[in-house]
Write a structure and sequence with these properties.
Blueprint (H helix, E strand, L loop, with lengths): L2 H18 L5 H12 L2 H16 L6 H29 L1 H4 L5 H9 L5 H22 L11 E5 L5 H14 L8 E4 L1 H4 L6 H13 L3 E4 L13 H16 L5 E6 L1 H9 L10 E5 L4 H14 L3 E2 L1 H17 L7 H19 L7 H5 E2 L5
Helix pairs in contact: 1-2, 1-4, 2-3, 3-4, 6-8, 10-11, 13-14, 13-15
Length: 365
């Protein structure tokens, strides 16, 4: 399911209703406010507009009444979807089998590559565990935040590691829930002055007790000279980093160079982050291992000639690193292509055995 689908349906229907009843843009304005910040006043005003249409139904055509009902239904669908998302985020650890600290560290350490990242996260867990022990004995501890900055190219595992970090922090008692909320600029910034702060507060409220992961965080301030909304977002976010530091971890992520500019955009921002972790690109061998892992998890395997050809392909790709290079996403795309071509080949085989159904060959590449 996609929130944007519900937003678009609701906004489109509201705009149509606005036009047919000559509401002078009021209905559209209420709908936009609802989508941007789930504004309670706008919700009440829109419901009042719909109630008035229904109350004076003799004034309106059958089509207008049907459209009013459609707007009301889409509003309910939109809020209902948001409620489901909130419930799922709040109850993450209730429906998922909770793993032990050892299991989570094993999950982290068995990730392909990322040696620098894994070492830093392991060091963090050791440090925070001991600090918690010291605190329990009344010893002095260094005042520091849990917030992290991940930098590096796309497809290097930043989101995967961020999810594991939240669950690790939950396991050692630093977070109450350990759930994961991922957002981007569009989830934080509203279309009207003053509403961005409300939108950020709602996101923070949803993430409290877990990890708030902001991918491509630099996009918040890319147009800083002309974008007051971005500055408003950053001001509210910087405040939240301090106010909720005891039960919220914010992880910002993005390309290395743009992230440097991001931290320069607000004087107090960088000081809220104690740990900066650089995610290196994968090597050709690591990309081959990632592909083999994907195959193994889905009951496929590569024959020797295909493995050799793919390793050679990854070697050339890592040396060239043009715009098409996407690290692990490249491995995922190749896996999807292999499986599709395998299916096209095997569908014509009469009564294929297990080996035929699971073996990927050079001709599938």
């Amino acid at each position: 399911m996609d929130t944007k689908k519900y937003e678009k349906c609701f906004l489109d229907l509201s705009s149509k209703l606005d036009a047919v009843v000559n509401a002078c843009g009021d209905i559209t304005k209420y709908a936009v406010n609802i989508v941007e910040t789930q504004d309670a006043v706008s919700t009440k005003m829109l419901c009042r507009e719909i109630s008035n249409i229904i109350e004076y139904k003799d004034k309106y055509s059958r089509e207008v009444l049907q459209l009013s009902k459609a707007v009301k239904d889409s509003l309910i669908d939109y809020y209902g979807y948001l409620q489901i998302i909130d419930i799922c985020n709040d109850k993450t650890n209730d429906w998922r089998e909770e793993k032990s600290l050892e299991e989570l560290l094993s999950e982290l350490n068995t990730l392909t590559g990322l040696n620098n990242v894994k070492q830093k996260v392991n060091d963090l867990i050791v440090y925070q565990t001991v600090q918690k022990m010291r605190r329990s004995k009344g010893l002095n501890i260094t005042k520091s935040t849990l917030h992290l900055a991940f930098t590096g190219n796309p497809g290097t595992g930043k989101t995967t590691v961020a999810r594991i970090v939240g669950r690790l922090y939950k396991q050692i008692g630093l977070l109450s829930k350990g759930h994961f909320v991922e957002v981007s600029r569009t989830d934080l910034i509203a279309g009207y002055q003053g509403q961005t702060a409300l939108k950020v507060k709602k996101v923070i409220e949803r993430a409290k007790g877990g990890v708030l992961f902001i991918d491509e965080a630099y996009s918040i301030t890319e147009n800083d000279h002309s974008d007051s909304y971005g500055r408003e977002c950053l001001t509210e976010l910087t405040k939240a980093l301090e106010d909720y530091r005891d039960d919220l971890v914010v992880i910002v992520a993005g390309y290395t160079e743009p992230m440097k500019l991001f931290f320069e955009a607000n004087p107090g921002l960088k000081s809220r982050f104690n740990t900066f972790i650089e995610f290196d690109d994968y090597t050709a061998d690591e990309l081959t291992k990632i592909l083999e892992t994907l195959c193994r998890k889905n009951d496929y395997h590569l024959d020797d000639s295909l493995k050799e050809k793919i390793t050679d392909f990854f070697l050339r790709a890592t040396e060239k690193k043009d715009d098409s290079f996407a690290n692990a996403r490249m491995a995922r795309n190749i896996y999807d292509d292999l499986v599709m071509h395998h299916a096209k080949r095997v569908v014509h085989v009469l009564n294929p055995d297990i080996e035929t159904l699971s073996l990927l060959k050079e001709e599938d590449f």
